[in-house]
Design goal:
10 helices, 0% strand, 193 residues, 3 domains, single chain, mainly alpha, 434 Repressor (Amino-terminal Domain)
Length: 193
């Protein structure tokens, strides 16, 4: 469960990721201007009512703000799901916000010892793996659709029996055409009786 300092960091992170301003949130929720600053210095947590208001404003659950995780799901799995559900343009901004909040100016320069750098690389690796799997699936689906399209085109371009019979009929001499028509009419009348 998060303490007050962790709650402050999480709320601040969510605001930055969503491109929102702290001042506007505090005004809209009716909190004092020093509310978030006080969270970092006080040991007590805000009331559940205030946590609920912040969760609603940030479009997350109170459990998420309080650090209560869904049983059976590790926090990294929840983070991965949330990250992958973001539009592509927001993923980079979210990653940059996490890096900025960590205090690292450039996790790539700080080497392998940087936990943020390692987490960033791992997250990017997971994203790349997911994108590769998705591209492979799309490729297989595209191949299947192409094959299906070829079969449909082959069936559509194949002449049906009526066209074949009509072509043969028209190729006959006129005296045979008349004889065939006469027999067809007799068969038709006979089947109706």
């Amino acid at each position: 469960m998060n303490n007050a300092q962790e709650l402050k960091v999480l709320v601040t992170s969510l605001l930055k990721m969503q491109g929102r301003k702290q001042k506007k949130m505090l005004e809209e929720l009716g909190f004092s201007a020093s509310f978030l600053t006080a969270l970092g210095t006080k040991s007590g947590m805000p009331s559940i009512n205030r946590v609920g208001k912040m969760a609603s404003y940030l479009n997350v659950s109170t459990d998420y703000l309080l650090g209560v995780h869904t049983p059976g799901k590790a926090p990294k799995d929840v983070l991965r799901e949330v990250y992958l559900a973001m539009p592509k343009k927001d993923q980079q901004a979210a990653l940059q916000s996490m890096i900025a909040l960590s205090g690292e100016s450039d996790p790539q320069k700080s080497g392998q010892n940087s936990s943020v750098g390692a987490a960033s690389k791992k997250l990017q690796s997971l994203i790349d793996e997911f994108e590769n799997e998705l591209a492979s699936y799309i490729g297989e689906l595209d191949s299947g659709l192409t094959a299906l399209g070829e079969k449909i085109n082959a069936l559509a371009s194949a002449p049906d029996q009526r066209e074949i019979v009509m072509a043969q009929f028209l190729a006959m001499p006129s005296h045979l055409q008349k004889k065939c028509l006469k027999e067809a009419v007799e068969l038709s009348i006979g089947s109706q009786e």
